[in-house]
Queue: 2 jobs
Job 1
Amino acid sequence: MHELGNRRSFSSGHGNPPQSALVAVVARTPKEGEISVKMLRESHTELMTMTATVKVEHLRKSYGAITAVADVSLTAHQGEIFGVLGPNGSGKTTTLRCLCTLSRPDAGLLEVCGFSVLHQPHLVRQKLGYVAQEVALDKILTGQEFLELQAALYHIPRALIPERIEAVLARLDLLQWRDRQCGTYSGGIRKRFDLAAGLLHQPQVLVLDEPTVGLDIESRQVIWDVLRDLKAQGLTIILTSHYLEEVDLLSDRLVILDKGRVIASGSPEELKANIGGDRVTLRVREFTPRQEAQRAQALLSQLTCVKSALINANQGNSLNLVVTDVTVAIAAIKRALEEAGLPLFSLAQSRPSLDDVYLAATGQTLLDADLAAAAQRDSKQLKKEVMQR
Ligand SMILES: Nc1ncnc2c1ncn2[C@@H]1O[C@H](COP(=O)(O)OP(=O)(O)OP(=O)(O)O)[C@@H](O)[C@H]1O
């Protein structure tokens, strides 16, 4: 299959009006009859939010016999953070790579700012910045030199480079780091430089693959603030993650992928509200035999306050219950188990999370799906190693 590169798209750098132009405002009250910049900005935002900045319809992409993406559709609007959540191997990176013109799809319609990814890739690259999962800094270069190199790769006119670099360094609070070698940076600073490089050509859409993977919580929070700031300035941001709380916290809307397909889409609130109810997770024993878990499942499913009961085999056959009134439900559950002579090892209650959305659709948690994917990868690797011996 024809691969179109491996890092990010490059642009001529002077094709798009900078979004920041609308934000550079002279603070004064408009005279009568004048249109305030705020009004202009609002009407601009309103107009732009009606347009889909990113459109993916029925994307399909295989690598030989492996179907990486079976059927993915999503639409992101201007000024929106759009999340793509899913376990390892669910097709997140492949979706992004197709969108960013780095991988050629087998089928589907993909558009960025009204331009076709397949037929107008050079225009798409002008509108879009891609920050890949692996941080691509050269250790010997200083941050300044790295950005100069990136600016040249983006074909930004020479005369504009110093001010563009100054602007991204200031925007990402990196001025103090510019003259130090990249090899001395922490993971969080490296990631911010990578983000800075993705912003040099002033894209309207920023696509980020796992922007905070491996970072400590403080560095993650810094990146989150940067992303919120960029969104406030009108950028459309698409990000993949398998950190549930990150997607929940940041995304206006999201899709959840599983095995290359969209299994849920909407705002985090909508998705959680749709599955409804509070959650009760209980274990009959620390490691409950399957039969006993099934007995408890049948018993508890009969309670009127229990809407559904799933057995999670990956968690020692624990039971995941959706209940209507948590206080009433907990009392009823304890009573029912006691009357049936079943023990109760542990019980916890929680509000629905995006993991529950995934669990409701697939029957397993994201963590379990990640573990299963890792085990599959390990066993493939093991087989390969054995065959090589
Ligand atoms: N270049 C490739 N050649 C062969 N198979 C690939 C290639 N890229 C991805 N795949 C396979 O396609 C499937 C989807 O991979 P993809 O990287 O898109 O998933 P992902 O959700 O981004 O996972 P991760 O979170 O691990 O990056 C996986 O089974 C993966 O092994």
Note: The CA atoms of residues 152 and 213 lie 28 Å apart.
Job 2
Amino acid sequence: MTDQSPPLGPIGEPIMGENGKLRWRPIRKANDPAGYDPEHKHHIDDYDLPPVESTVTWKTKPGEPVIEVEDLGIEFLRGRKRNLSLREIVFTGKSAHKRDTFWALRNLNFRVGRGEAVGLVGGNGGGKSTLLKLIAGTLLPDEGRAKVHEGVAPLIELTGGFVGELSARENIYLTAGLHGMSKEQVEERWDDIVDFAGPQVRAGLDVPYRHFSSGMQVRLGFAVITCLDEPIILVDEVLAVGDAAFREKCYNRMESLLDQGRTLFLVSHSGPDLLRFCTRGLYLNGGHLVGDGPMDEIMDRYLSELMGDNYQLPTDEEVTDRRLKRTDDQIKRRLKREAERTAIQNEADRRRAVG
Ligand SMILES: Nc1ncnc2c1ncn2[C@@H]1O[C@H](COP(=O)(O)OP(=O)(O)OP(=O)(O)O)[C@@H](O)[C@H]1O
């Protein structure tokens, strides 16, 4: 919100905004990190946060959906039942193998806007990974459609679509090239990719990718996928194999991508991770979309259905307090990123000036 917004209540007093969100009176502009008061409670919308430059070229206009899922369904083969006898085949005209199929996803309908961060929750086998693969286009639906209006950078399998026989170096060029990046663009971002992936990956750049440990695979996969200029990022549970420090680095990068207005789809069984980024939750159960709403409400519903009486739903007051705490943390992290970006920019300007 800018200073032209309708007047707010006294400092620290929440008022209900027109959009139904609680808002707090800002005590300073967000682009003035020095004035930040960590004791004060804020709503992120109260800040005139500077837009973050992005190299993405958008095909959609602001406000248009980037993903439209309509009556989407996919059927899988569960296995084969007993083979039919020759007599049955001849007299019934059926195939020798009886097909035993099931709908892994069915009747899914939803739209996702630019810049939304969507978390997918649901029990094992609920269809989360399958949905990401349908959005990425690596699986085709049997019913309906998933219309994706922007490019997608998927990290949905540990191998990230990389070729095991090729070296890590070759895989970087290959993946970036498939997403439309020229050799020069890859070279420009080379250090960013390899530094992010870490020293173990740098040391193994010429080793066949299949010899990488699962942690190294995910480091390289994440570094490459998030360096692409694709507006939609899909991340499946894969980050779980990285160590804690690397995961934190990945989360920071995901937040930077969201600052640029990119769209994120995240599958995770970790409530805190989902709540850190995602504003919207989709709940898949038995292949059906059974919930679509604010991430915290979807998470509470999923956990209470999963754990029954062992999960205590928060009171309204607790929900509000937790939302405020999360918003406050998001603002602090955003300001830190702004300060880091400014420092990097200043250093680059200084070097340019020195020649
Ligand atoms: N290629 C496939 N062929 C047959 N069945 C499949 C295939 N891929 C997934 N399935 C099945 O589809 C269902 C949904 O699987 P999916 O991996 O999407 O679930 P998930 O919600 O991601 O589960 P988890 O939380 O355990 O990772 C499961 O029953 C799974 O066994």
Note: The longest helix spans residues 316-354.
